[in-house]
Give the backbone structure.
Amino acid sequence: MGKVTKTVPLPAPARQVAVGSDGTTFYVLTGKATTASVSIVGSRAGRVLGSVPMPSDAVSVVPDVSQTTLYALERNGLVDQINIAGGKVVAKFKAASKDDTAQSIALSPDGGTLYVLKNADGTSNIADVNIATEAVRKVLPAPSHCVGVLVSTSGGQLYDLVGTPTYGNIQVFAA
């Protein structure tokens, strides 16, 4: 393993991280029991550049393609679109039913589709959400024990991260 060249302190424990479309900005969801925020970390600067308040139960975040807003997924399946400058919520929409537990989100490279991983009664699936209409277009199956979802840089594939205490894998699906 290589030598650590820089450590960037965060204001609270990290929950999740997403990389911006520029490839150099990281959006780190941090939080404690009753508070959450996103620390914007510039890899070139090697420091936290700013912070955006988040819903306290946010479980996953992803920046839009222009890196002007963040999509924050709450455990209950509500998605908040929040301006990075000023931290104001500009849109809210539901991407899961009341019985679902939301886990992870990913955004297509063109910014038109949000993929929302959710779980209900031990069965995982992924909602394909049209950003323009804020509506679920379709629901895709996901493997058991799915813990995260990512989108390929081409947008043509979804990567499902699967894990239990005894095994883990990545499964690749056509988007």
Remarks:
- The first strand starts at residue 14 and ends at 19.
- The chain has a mean pLDDT of 94.
- The chain is about 0% helix and 60% strand.
- The radius of gyration is 16 Å.
